[in-house]
Amino acid sequence: MSALRICLCLNPVLLNRFLTQTNLLSSSCALSSSLKWTSKSLCCSSKSIVHSNGDTSTSLSRNCPLSGLEDELVGYRLGKKKATEVAHLVWRHVLHKGDIVIDATCGNGYDTLAMLKMVADESGSGRVYGMDIQIDALKNTSSLLDATVTQKEKELVKLFPICHSRMDEVVPENTAVRLVAFNLGYLPGGDKGIITTSKTTLLALEAAKKMLISGGLISLVVYVGHPGGRIGYC
Ligand SMILES: *[C@@H]1O[C@H](CO)[C@@H](O)[C@H](O)[C@H]1NC(C)=O
């Protein structure tokens, strides 16, 4: 994990004004540019919050849903906050109780758990659709939930052992999804041969884009430190 990026893409349909990213390596989001997205499909470079020259004074526009998080983003840049912590802060900023969210890469389940805590409410309308190609990852996610949430909360989580490029097969049609989160790269402690690829990631991002409601968020935390880069299979 020598370097990582956080890239947050807002549904451009109505919120076409903003995307933010914190990036240790360059001022553009390598993942999206490598996927050759136009700014019309998923915007991905409207504004750098923290410049690579160390200038951390940039502020976010007031109508940006992430405004108020500048300090956290700077904290990340300065190494005081982990990428996942910043991602969780951003999600909390965007999510409401009762929302429907997708954890496209369950891993060991910490993101799934964080999302569940953010959307679970009394009414039981919140949902977390979680998926991972590795059965072990889902087992671990399930055990983590058993150990940390009530049975009623756990029932709000639906786990699927599939590639996230097939998320539209498991999430019911016309589901209003507010967040789709990706944590790309190898699973810590998992099989380093199983890493996410740009091909399946692209398919998954396209699927995610279709499901997002206006004002929804696609969150990408991309670990670029493993030897395979972003090449491998889902
Ligand atoms: C699941 O959890 C076990 C025990 O903590 C760990 O050894 C294993 O690497 C995890 N597997 C995956 C795929 O996360």
Automatic annotation (TrEMBL):
Q: Which domain of life is it from?
A: Eukaryota
Q: Which stretch is the leader sequence?
A: 1-15
Q: Which Pfam families match?
A: rRNA_methylase
Cite the entry's keywords alphabetically: Signal
- Cited PANTHER family: S-ADENOSYL-L-METHIONINE-DEPENDENT METHYLTRANSFERASES SUPERFAMILY PROTEIN, TRNA (MNM(5)S(2)U34)-METHYLTRANSFERASE, CHLOROPLASTIC
Protein name per Swiss-Prot or TrEMBL = Uncharacterized protein LOC110427609 isoform X2
Q: Give the organism the record lists.
A: Herrania umbratica
Lineage of this protein's species?
A: Eukaryota, Viridiplantae, Streptophyta, Embryophyta, Tracheophyta
